[in-house]
Amino acid sequence: MLKTVSCRENRPALQHARARRRPVCRAAAQTPHSLAEELQAARDTYRSLAEAARVETSLDLRQTDGVSAGLGLAATRPHAKNEVLMRVPRSAAIVLDYDRGLSMPPARWPRLRGGASSSIDPLPWDILQALALVDGLAGDGGEFWARYCDVLLPAPERLTLPMCWEPQRLAQLQHRDIATAAEAQQDRLMGLFPELMEPLAPDVPSWFQWAFACVRSRAFRAGPDAFAFVPFLDLANHADAPQAVPPGPSGASGGAATPAPPSNQVANADFRASPAGAGSGEAGAGEYFELYALRDIVAGEEVTISYAGPEGYTNQRFMAQYGFVPVGGNAADRVKLELTPEMQSAPLDLEVLQELLGDALFMSALRGTDPYLTAALKSLPLVDGGGSNGVKAATAGSVRTAQALLQQVEAQIAEGTTTLEADEALLGGAEGRALAEADPRQAAAVAYRVERKRLLDKTAALLRAYARR
């Protein structure tokens, strides 16, 4: 993501090391000229660091739009399916392999090494890699990582992961569950390294939160027990997994084919690690991480990967881990419902719901062409009542289940302090684009609650119709 123009210097206190200083600005409007200059500076840094790290690639940086707007990778020439788009030496990455140990470029890395050698409880991989990024930003991981952290990773004030937000901003999500989880993550980090958790400003996270958020949203699993922060590969943005088939509602029968989404909404690349021990010499020498094409890619096309895999993630996980949600519905999203034993013994009849919806809407749910309806149905306890002739009657028990579930959904709708219409207006047109640039965190919060309200409204409508049956 592009950083904002400096409006003041904030000097975080990092113990035992010189910290590289990055400007922090709470709200700064950028002119098109300054944005273009900053993009060019990022592109120049990307190219020079890639050359220094001996990265083989024909991809370049570009500014992107969409759910994960910011910086992304684009093809500079056509590529054929299975062609390697980028190859990053393992020696340039920060790798934690529980079988082979730590691997990173030669440098001091004092916080990482100290955390890895702690005689107390072993620190998990994500905390260790966060310590590595703090080292990198402070200049203790070598010049390459100092420049990479300073220029090519997002600025703290533009991070859209809720665990980087203060309580007032968390309230903008209008969802207590995700806010509580974010606060628990903050408490966890504070308990581990309180000296690294000083906020850079009242509404800007600490450097440790910044580092942990970058790890959460950008690191890769590089093996069964191996995790890697791979420079340059981490710049690939998200798109749907290829051939992802949203499963029909539980209990649904039939084999309706799922139409493929537009190609620009589907990931066109994936990553892989070379076999362990490839090459010769010191540990990790000759090994690499690759980004390769899943289909033909034309020049100028953005190169994307799927963060979620074929099964998808809920919006709450997308927001918590990556700081954005898919716009326009997510068939893998779910409404959280508490099911009592009585509800489980009296689920809703799928055949009744099919009659209520009509064949066209019901098939759109099976195919995933109405992702809100698919997600709503998948959130409910359902049973296929079997093929009956004539109008299907809902059992008294299933009607009571629908009524009880409707109360839960309406309670979640009541968490909202703004209307869906007002939120949609904030994100629409030129006003929405201006909000995304001026305050990406607020834009992300509004997008999250828009998608949640749409799903809750769809679920409530289904339950009301069923309860009246």
Short description:
The chain has 469 residues and is α+β, with helices and mostly antiparallel strands.
Q: In words, what does this structure look like?
A:
The structure is a single chain. By secondary structure, this protein is an alpha+beta fold. The protein folds into 2 domains: 32-322, Alpha-Beta Complex (set domain protein methyltransferase, domain 1), CATH 3.90.1410; 341-467, no CATH class. It has 16 helices and 14 strands. The chain has helices at residues 32-52, 110-116, 125-138, 143-152, 167-170, 176-192, 207-218, 315-322, 341-345, 350-357, 359-367, 371-379, 396-413, 420-427, 429-438, 440-467, and strands at 56-57, 59-64, 70-75, 84-89, 94-97, 101-103, 220-223, 226-229, 237-238, 269-273, 288-293, 302-305, 348-349, 382-383. The strands form 4 sheets. The protein has a 4-stranded antiparallel sheet with strand order 1-4-11-10, with no helix packed on it. Strands 2-3-12-9 form a 4-stranded mixed sheet, with helices on one face. The protein is globular, with a radius of gyration of 24 Å. The chain starts with 31 loop residues before the first helix and ends with a helix. 43% of the residues are buried. Residues 57-308 form the SET domain. This is SET domain-containing protein. One of its GO terms (molecular function) is protein-lysine N-methyltransferase activity. Residues 241-278 are annotated as: Disordered. Keywords: Methyltransferase, S-adenosyl-L-methionine, Transferase.
